[in-house]
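Researcher: We're teaching a course module on how sequence relates to structure. For the next exercise, students receive a sequence and then see the predicted structure as C-alpha cells, so they can try to spot secondary structure elements on their own. Here is the exercise chain.
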Amino acid sequence: QASLSVSDAPPVRILYVGPGNLYLRNLLRFFVNVQVTTSLRWDQEAAQSQNQYDVVIFDHVAVPALSQGNFILINTVAPNLPLARRGTIANPHILLPIAKHPITEGLSLGDLRIQEALNVSVKGEGVVLARSAESAIFYALEKDKLRLLYLGFDLMASDFPLRIAFPVLFHNALTWLQPQRLEFPGQSAQAGTPFVLRLPAGDSSLEITLPSGKKENYASAANPFVFS
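Model: And here is the predicted structure for the students to work with:
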C-alpha cells in the first residue's frame, strides 16, 4: 500500500535543542509541512543559525535570554522571562478549567499524570494556560517580536504523550506561533476591515500587492502588522 499527503502550506523549519525525545520526534514526523533539525545543545553555531528556523524547541537544556522569535520550552526556563523558578513539585494536579486560548482549543487535561514539574511563579506578562495549586504548568507569552509556549515538565516523565491532548497542543501551538508566510487562499477579510499579518521571526520588510496591481512597501513593519 502507498499513500501520498500533499500540502500547499510552506514548510515550518524547527530546530530542536535537547537530548532527544522519542515521543516528540515521532509526533513531528506526522506534520507533513514540518522540517526538523536537531542539536544537543545551544552553542555558537546554533545561535548563528537561529534565523534559518521558524520555531526553536528547547527541551531540558539551558536556555539563553530570548528577545525575539518563536519558541517552545519544555522543562526549562529562560533567564529573562517573567517566570521565577522555585525548585520542583511532585505529582502536580492540573486545576480545571484551563484557560481559554488558541493553544488550548480542543484540549483536555483531566487526570493528566506528571511525576515532577518545575515550580514556577508568573510575574507580570503572559497567560497561564494550565496550573496546579502550586505552579504554572502550561504558559504562553506574546510580547513584541517574541512568542513562546512553556511546558513545565519532562514529557518522558508523564502520560501526556499518550493522550490525544499531545498532538492537539502541538498542532495548536504551531498554528498560534504562525511562522509560515500566508499563501492564497490562506486567509481572507471583509473589504474595509483591518487584516492582521503575523510576519516570520526576523522579518520586517513587507510588500503588499493591491487588487489594482499597485504595490505598497513597508521597510520596518511591526509584527503583527495591521493592514487596513
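Model: If you want an answer key for the exercise: The longest helix spans residues 165-177. The longest strand covers residues 83-90.
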